[in-house]
Amino acid sequence: MDQTIGQSVPGARVQVQASSSNCSLVVEPKDRALGLADWSKPNRDQISNWLQASGAVLFRGFIVDGQSAFANFAKSLSPSLSEYVYRSTPRTHLGQMIYTATEYPPKATIPLHNENSYQRDWPLSLMFYCQQPALEGGDTPLARTNLVTSQIPGYIRDKFCSLGVMYIRNYRSEGTPGLDLPWQTVFQTTDGKIVEKYCSDHEIESEWLGNGRLRTRQVCQAMAEHPSSKKLLWFNQAHLFHVSSLDPQTQEALKKTFKKGEDFPRASFGRTPFSGPRKLLVAMAGSFAELGAMVAPALGTSGEKVNSY
Prior knowledge:
- The protein has helices spanning 36-40, 44-54, 67-77, 145-150, 154-163, 183-187, 192-201, 238-241, 248-257; strands at residues 3-9, 12-18, 23-29, 57-59, 93-95, 98-100, 125-132, 136-137, 165-171, 205-208, 214-220, 223-225, 232-234, 274-275, 279-285.
- The chain is an alpha+beta fold.
- The protein has a four-stranded mixed β-sheet with strand order 1-2-3-4. Strands 5-6-15-7 form a four-stranded antiparallel β-sheet, with helices on one face. Strands 9-11-10 form a three-stranded antiparallel β-sheet.
- The longest helix has 11 residues, at 44-54.
- Residues 1-5, 261-269 and 293-309 have low confidence and may be disordered.
């Protein structure tokens, strides 16, 4: 049964919307003239506690006057924001470590996923700012990863953990036709030697193909250990990079483009279709790798540890 519980903190009202499967927080200012960055800085510890308890917090009704104000809010929670490198989708860097959300066509649906879980390092927190809501649709749906994990049969989790997930990506060169992003965009450089060093440092196999194209391979985690709860959670993007995630028309086009045995590139982020203008900004903070381990140990079918990178 769903229930809404009202709470109060200095300067704001908190609505706790709880159900048997979810718990979300909606925080609204008591004074509509209150700026979010001004309120969040002295309440940073409270916000951190909310996130630990519920996983997500929605701030509604505070003043956030554009990109700079959003950046100030993000830095009030995490002074060191993360750069978006080794990209998988088209985004624009707006400055101050603030990015646009994935720039896919409005009609596209982006499935639920965990940010950057196709690699071995990822941000510990995400902050979204809806600067321009769509006329219709454009929601950012959320899911509790622990509940998702519990609904995946144990034998599937065991098999994925024992093998890991290999991501094979194909990149075109900037200014040439092809699928996926140019490698210059993905690695944020035009120097192939820098790309090779990045791949070597991150245990990514790289192979230069004809016409300036690049192919990379990397085996990553299927599940990762939550830094606080220590629970093993489903944490990969196998469903996004696989051809089955595409609509039938795109699948058919890819089959005509690639021969048998070649690779299908694909990556995406969560969003529902929308109409009209829409602009969502994103900031990323923290680094899983800085906690001391790139990937949490995985568990094999008999419970033994099998892979740790």
